[in-house]
UniProtKB/TrEMBL annotation:
GO terms for cellular component: endoplasmic reticulum. It comes from Branchiostoma belcheri. This is Calmodulin-like protein 12. It comes from the Eukaryota. Residues 1-19 form the signal peptide.
């Protein structure tokens, strides 16, 4: 059985919440007490379990999914960047206070409506494979919200994943694993030039990742249940993205192999945080002027971002930078593509990210 099929079957059939509740609920009273949690896990293990992409960070969308609000993110995010490190979390609260964030009625126990995230965390700690099979379901509630899906991959990644031969077009046959019986109708709707297939431009011009989510969300409740078939297409695409690097990541930034690198291809290949981390050549957690102007932006931009005038930029000071800022810096002729003469430094950053 192929890896992504194993991934799909595990997600579609597993019931980790039911299996693990009695194990975390040590006395079997149907409630999870703070002491039971303190006896079973550590805060560090819980945070590692929530770090589903293993980059050492928790991002605002994950926090919102987990706690229903971003308050704790802003409370603990001292340097104003786009993520919380595990260290920031551990310095800001202890395991008991972490428990309290889930204990909405503050009675010292997690009832069934409050405990599913804690059970998800415990299950992931006990079974590391669950971190892969439950990666899309960021809060472990057994359903995929629009926020979870939009935070997991982009429309560009969706298109590349569903274009196995890399020709820049989607046939009905290629799209059928994602859309099933609805495939022909979707192609007919988006096929502006009526050639029987969809170009990337037709997909991007006619819909969005949010629009694709709505196609799967038949009842319009904003969620895709993992206990029904409505999440099957999303799970299939995500499985391809995560388990077949030859399709999505193996070709490097130039995903379509045309000899030019577009912003969409860079967006698929790396995040801005990964690019900045790669530009930090001496791994000292900041960029000096030489590193910044070599790979990221102009000296003028460096000076503007250096708020404390210490001659270096922390990642917090650079948190407003986006991938298009980086891309445009290297796109010397402004044509929207990086040719061979413009792409060498971007390729260097990509190689550092993938190393």
């Amino acid at each position: 059985m192929t890896p992504f099929l194993l991934f799909f079957v595990a997600l579609a059939t597993a019931s980790p919440m039911r299996r693990q509740t009695m194990m975390l609920d040590a006395n079997g009273d149907g409630m999870i007490s703070k002491q039971e949690v303190l006896n079973a896990i550590t805060l560090h293990d819980a945070l590692v379990a929530l770090d589903i992409d293993n980059d050492g960070f928790l991002y605002l969308p994950q926090i919102v999914e987990l706690f229903g609000t971003g308050d704790i993110f802003y409370q603990l995010n001292n340097n104003g960047d786009d993520h919380l490190t595990i260290g920031e979390f551990q310095h800001g609260l202890n395991l008991g206070e972490f428990f309290d964030l889930f204990d909405k009625n503050a009675d010292g126990f997690l009832d069934m409506s409050e405990s599913y995230q804690m059970n998800y965390i415990y299950n992931t700690i006990q079974n590391p494979d669950a971190a892969i099979t439950n990666a899309l379901d960021a809060n472990g509630d057994g359903k995929l919200s629009k926020l979870e899906v939009l935070g997991a991959f982009t429309l560009d990644e969706f298109m590349v994943a569903m274009d196995p031969n890399g020709d820049g077009f989607h046939t009905v046959q290629e799209l059928t694993p994602a859309f099933g019986a609805d495939t022909q109708a979707i192609v007919n709707l988006l096929d502006a030039d009526m050639d029987g297939q969809l170009s990337y431009d037709e997909v991007k011009g006619g819909t969005s990742l949010e629009g694709i989510f709505d196609i799967y969300d038949v009842n319009g409740d904003g969620y895709l249940s993992l206990n029904t078939t409505e999440a099957d297409g999303i799970l299939y695409v995500y499985g391809v993205i995560k388990t077949d690097p030859n399709i999505v990541q193996g070709m490097g930034p130039d995903a379509d192999g045309d000899g030019w690198i577009s912003l969409a291809e860079v967006d698929i290949a790396m995040t801005m945080h990964q690019a900045l981390d790669a530009a930090d050549l001496d791994d000292d957690n900041h960029l000096d002027a030489q590193e910044f102007t070599m790979y990221v932006g102009t000296q003028l931009l460096f000076n503007r971002l250096d708020h404390n005038n210490d001659g270096i930029l922390s990642f917090g000071e650079m948190h407003t930078l986006r991938l298009d800022d980086l891309f445009n810096y290297h796109d010397i002729n402004g044509d929207g593509f990086l040719d061979a003469s413009e792409s060498d430094k971007m390729m260097f950053l990509y190689d550092r990210v993938m190393a």
